[in-house]
Amino acid sequence: MAASDRCFMIEDDMLADIVGRANLSPSDVVLEVGAGYGNLTEKIAATNKVSAIEKEMDLFNVLVKKFSADQNVDLILGDALKVEYPIYNKIVSNIPYSISRKLIVRFILEGFEEATLVVQKEFAEKLLSKPDTDEYRMLSVLTQTTCDAEIISAVPAKAFRPQPKVESSLIALKQKLKPKKDYVTFLNLLFSGKNKKLRNILDTPAEYSELRPCEMQANQFLEVYSSI
C-alpha cells in the first residue's frame, strides 16, 4: 500500500506549513482529497471552508464525529476519482500516493487556481522531468503545459504515523490552462510511441513530422496539438 494511503500526517508544524504555503484568502474554498483523521482538514477549516473527501468508512466515521459541528467542513464519503466534486477554487491535500497519477489528471481536467499537495518524492520529480530523461512522460507534459509547477520542500518521514518507507515532497501547482479531455488522449497517443517520429504516430504538419515525443519540449506538444 502506498505511503499516504494509510500513513497519516501528525506533525503540527508540517501541517501548519502546508496550509501556510497554500496562499489561502478568506474567500477561497478548498478541496481536500484523502482526509484521513482530519489533521490537515482541521488546519484548513480554521480559516476557510473545505470539502474533505474520504473513501474509507472507518476514517469517515472519525471525521463525522470530529467535524459534525464545524460549519466550515463539508464531508464527502466516496472515491475521489469517481465522486462529483463540489465547488472549490484551491486544492490542499496529502493525496493517496497509489492514485496520484489519476488524481493529477482529474484535478487538471476539473480545473483549479492553485493546488498544494504532498506527494511521493519520485512522483514530484516525474511531474517536473525534462525531455531525454527516463522520467519524462505524458504526465510531465500535461502538468508543465497546463500549470506552473514547483517542488517546495521535502516532507520528512517523521511527519507521518506510521512512518512511510518512501520519501515525500510538498509541491505547488498554479493552473494556467484548463485543457479539454482530448488533450490528454492526444498526449497518451504520442507517449504510446514516445521514441517514434511523429509522422509514424499521427498526421501532423511537415514542420513537426521528424520530432520524437521523448525529445520534444513541453510547449511543442501544445503547438502540435493546436495544429491538428
**In DSSP terms, counting alpha (H) and pi (I) runs of 4 or more, how many helices?**
9
Number of strands: 9
Uncertain segments of ≥5 residues (pLDDT<50)?
none
Helix content: 25-40%
Largest sheet: 7 strands, mixed
- Assigned CATH superfamily of the largest domain: Vaccinia Virus protein VP39
Order of strands in the sheet with the most strands?
4-3-2-5-6-9-7
Principal-axis shape equals: elongated
Properties at a glance:
seven-stranded mixed sheet, about 20% strand, about 35% helix, single chain, alpha/beta, about 230 residues, two-stranded antiparallel sheet, Rossmann fold
Describe the structure.
With 228 residues, the protein is of the alpha/beta class. It folds into 2 domains: 177 residues, Vaccinia Virus protein VP39 (Rossmann fold, 3-Layer(aba) Sandwich); 45 residues, no CATH class.
In a nutshell, what does this entry contain?
The chain has 228 residues and is an alpha/beta fold. It is 35% helix and 21% strand. It folds into two domains: 3-179, Rossmann fold (3-Layer(aba) Sandwich), CATH 3.40.50; 183-227, no CATH class.
Write the layout of secondary structure elements.
Layout: H1 3-6, E1 8-9, H2 12-20, E2 29-33, H3 39-45, E3 49-54, H4 57-67, E4 73-77, E5 90-94, H5 100-110, E6 114-120, H6 121-127, H7 138-146, E7 147-155, E8 160-161, E9 168-175, H8 181-192, H9 218-227
Parallel strand pairs: 2-3, 2-5, 3-4, 5-6
Antiparallel strand pairs: 1-8, 6-9, 7-9
Helix pairs in contact: 2-3, 5-7, 7-9
